[in-house]
Specification:
Blueprint: H1 15-25, H2 27-32, H3 42-48, E1 53-58, H4 64-77, E2 78-86, H5 101-111, E3 116-121, E4 125-129
Parallel strand pairs: 1-2
Antiparallel strand pairs: 2-4, 3-4
Helix pairs in contact: 4-5
The structure holds S-adenosylmethionine (SAM).
């Protein structure tokens, strides 16, 4: 997204500079067209998306309501056999659980119990869709 978010830690970041840094480091992949950046929220991305993916990594807005929404949208866009990964499973904003990813990831895992194989659980959660 390359802009601030609900997280305080993002307030002091120079976002345009970070975007330039990203472009320089990933130029080789951007040039081939295999990497396509989207400067928009995940909601906006999924609302317009019609592609399906082999791998989706969720590490955006960490609030539970956003993580569960990203998970549901990502699941719909993930191919059977594809891998979905969540970052920051054990990260906490230090306030209330609705500000953290974990309750949302747990709820999603429960709701989709028979729909995946769990590949890894640590500070990240990785699963393969059936
Ligand atoms: C914890 S950082 C992780 C960035 C990157 N995955 C990394 O490891 O360097 C979270 C990023 O998600 C972005 N973000 C926050 N809310 C978002 C949203 N609703 N949609 C898309 N990105 C969002 C933030 O601007 C920030 O760049």
């Amino acid at each position: 997204m390359w802009q601030g978010s609900a997280e305080e830690a993002h307030n002091d970041i120079d976002w345009p500079q970070l975007r330039d840094f990203y472009a320089k480091r990933l130029w080789g992949f951007l040039e081939t067209g295999k990497l396509v950046p989207f400067q928009k929220t995940s909601d906006a991305f999924f609302a317009e998306n019609s592609q399906t993916f082999d791998f989706i990594y969720i590490d955006g807005d960490h609030r539970a309501s956003s993580v569960v929404k990203d998970a549901i949208n990502a699941w719909a866009a993930l191919k059977p056999g594809g891998v979905l990964a969540f970052d920051d499973y054990s990260w906490s904003a230090g306030s209330t659980p609705d500000q953290d990813p974990k309750p949302a990831i747990d709820a999603f895992l429960l709701a989709k119990t028979n729909g995946y194989n769990l590949l890894a659980v640590n500070n990240q959660v990785w699963l393969r869709k059936h």
